[in-house]
Amino acid sequence: MRSVTKDNITDVFTSYFGEDTDPRVKEVLTALARHMHDFAREVNLTHDEWRVGIDFLTRAGEITTPERQEFVLLSDVLGLSSLVDMLHSTPEATSSSVLGPFHVSNPPPLAIGGDMKRDFEGEVILVEGTVRDTDGKPIPHATIDIWQTAPNGMYSSQDPDQDIHSFHGLMTADENGRYAFTTVRPVEYTVPADGPVGDILRAAGRHPWRPSHLHYIVSAEGFRSLVTEVFPDDDPYLDQDTVFGVRDDLVMTYVQQPSGSFPDGFEISGKVDGTYARVDFDLVLAKA
Amino acid sequence: MRSVTKDNITDVFTSYFGEDTDPRVKEVLTALARHMHDFAREVNLTHDEWRVGIDFLTRAGEITTPERQEFVLLSDVLGLSSLVDMLHSTPEATSSSVLGPFHVSNPPPLAIGGDMKRDFEGEVILVEGTVRDTDGKPIPHATIDIWQTAPNGMYSSQDPDQDIHSFHGLMTADENGRYAFTTVRPVEYTVPADGPVGDILRAAGRHPWRPSHLHYIVSAEGFRSLVTEVFPDDDPYLDQDTVFGVRDDLVMTYVQQPSGSFPDGFEISGKVDGTYARVDFDLVLAKA
Lengths: 288, 288
Hints:
Chain A is of the alpha/beta class. Chain A folds into two domains: 1-45; 93-190 and 205-285, Sandwich (Protocatechuate 3,4-Dioxygenase, subunit A), CATH 2.60.130. Chain A has six helices and 13 strands. Chain A has helices at 9-15, 23-43, 47-63, 70-77, 80-87, 196-203, and strands at 114-115, 124-133, 143-147, 168-172, 178-184, 189-190, 209-210, 214-219, 226-232, 251-252, 255-257, 276-280, 283-285. In chain A, β8 (214-219) and β9 (226-232) form a beta hairpin. The radius of gyration of chain A is 23 Å and the shape is elongated. In chain A, 40% of the residues are buried. The interface between A and B is large, with 78 and 78 residues.
């Protein structure tokens, strides 16, 4: 169209598509361009602001490596990653939440009742629950990939002092869907704020903290895989997770237990003298 | 907010801003997030599609260098660059259009009536006009930075066989605002389609062509600088510029002239035997 104007540019964009364009490609790109155009018109985006945006993306590209994904982080702090998760969650199942960049391949096996903290110090947390379907029926033998931060706030892949498999474990629930393990509390940590996404957080007066959480990927044949996180209800950042990962149904409670009450049947049974905390969290999968 | 949902996530995002946030930063980021969220909800963006987007940005970062700016190219082919230009054009002045990546610093001086084609072959084009204000009054001594493609479709900065100043010139208009020079026709060319932006064009069934054009940056004290391009009305891509740069008032006409009619007062006067074309194009600046 010869006469492109600020009001018709979205229509011109749409008119450029080839006739054989995949309908979904056309739908997504048209909506993307329309929202981008609406955004620019609505805020009357200036050339200087446009250049700030180009410079931001360029710097994000420069800092991105296989280990540091600044574009995912941008999506996370803008809430886009969480929104995509929520769009594809099943209401009756456990909500999904962001995978994050700290999952490792080939996690070591963790027996039911096994200990994930190994030699790390701290109050013992006993986590248990049942993997079940949306009708409440236990799902036997689901696979649960579990990971969390060490007490220093770092995941194993960030910390040269940790074994790569530290605070990672792969459990198979029993025939009644039960899973159980011991660990120490995961802790709050900050997303990387030394790059361009950190500049956005600072410009917006936002902190880079995430509430502490346990990560789970739960898989069982015939069910949709669940990628999620669970958060303790006493975490100071529960209401302001910088990546918007918290959902009502992903909040767990550490229930304090008296000294001497630690149960049998765990790898560390008989070795826990003091108080400990118990978490009961069921994982509900939707049918595939 | 503990209970982030797909419907309230934009409000949660807005609630995270610090109290001292610059109002413009808050306005732009809020609108950006809201449009991004609306886009994702509207198309029900899937995890796989989200990953395609992250992969796209990552690859764009990888291919971007000081000479190859894939993020600018993305903005160009989505129409965002042109929209920002149009948002800040003055209706009574000549429309602005995209700067593009091929401008060079320190262009060589080009006298009024000078020849920009130098030793290149081709039918001579005589371009002239007046730089004037929005009341029609000539602006004396405006500076006009002019550049274009060589006949092979390449700008000097793309072409190791051209001098870096080839088809670039810096002219100062006379006291009556007149500018004039000779050249050969600029030619159509493609934007770089060998990177991720090329993948978008192919997926959309779009070609990578731009209609031929002359670039101008016009500056004069007391006036807003004008960055623009002018396009011939007989160009096959006039109605489908892949970067949306054409505006009604930026279309020029090559008027064919008979042999032997080339005027005096030009650097190449007396050396033009055959036919040539004449272009008359006034450049209208808005007051600063």
